[in-house]
Amino acid sequence: MATDYDAPRKTEEEAGPASIEELQARRSDKQSAVVDVDETEAAEGFELPGADLSGEELLVRVVPPQEDEFTCNSCFLVRHRSQLAVEKNGLAYCKDCEG
């Protein structure tokens, strides 16, 4: 259904006064008896076509830590030395976590 957004809007006087009984009747008509379902429960039974990756093999190249990198002990991300905020008891923390 197309909506003409350029058409003039009706004013409150043209729309007419709505009685409290009419408003309550409209509100009760639109209520649904559907019970909310937990998203995780609903997602467990839902399978995407072609989503079975059990037979797939992943090849990942592991690179040893570089001299200008460190691993933050709070977020466990590998960061460049320029992101080092503080080193406490031999543990390094990045600027984002220490901030």
From TrEMBL:
It comes from the Bacteria. This is DUF4193 family protein. InterPro entries: DUF4193 (IPR025242). Pfam families: DUF4193. Residues 1-13 have a biased composition (Basic and acidic residues). Residues 1-49 are annotated as: Disordered.
